[in-house]
Amino acid sequence: MTQFIKFGIVGASGMVVNGVVAHALQKTTTLSWFADFAIGFMIGGISNYALNRIWTFGSRRNPLVEGAQFLTVSGIALVLGKVVFAIAQQTSFHHFTATWFAATLAGTFVNFFLNKYWTFRHLN
């Protein structure tokens, strides 16, 4: 439970990074909403990886191996986010912040469990 709480705190910080970047891109570029989300998501993911490695899981394993695994998990969560954006488009729901939040929330549990039991499994 402690790891999940730490993961949530780290995730909240990454969500702020993700949200600031995605919303800034949404307001200043002509990229698709999903592209804005994806760029913000990956930048937030970089900070999440570093903080989770150091604070949540306290890992000392090879950072390149863990980083590749964390990036793979992030890719899976990003695909889930794409599904959320696709559903929003199919239903003509046109509110970026609500769609961004739903896509981010959808990936939270996938991220935690795959990272806990695959990327950082050696610490369980």
Give your account of this protein's structure.
The chain has 124 residues and is an all-alpha fold. It has one domain. The protein is 83% helix and 0% strand. The chain contains 4 helices and no strands. The model has no long low-confidence stretch (mean pLDDT 89).
Tell me the major beta sheet: none
Which bin fits the share of residues in helices?
Answer: over 70%
Q: What is the number of independent domains?
A: 1
Q: List unreliable stretches of 5+ residues.
A: none
Please write the string of helix (H) and strand (E) elements: HHHH
Overall structural class, as computed from helix and strand content, comes to mainly alpha
Radius of gyration: 15 Å
Shape: elongated
The overall pLDDT average reads 89
Terminal CA distance: 12 Å
Number of helices: 4
Beta-strand segment tally: 0
**Multimeric organization:** single chain
Query: What share of the residues does DSSP label as strand, in percent?
Result: under 5%
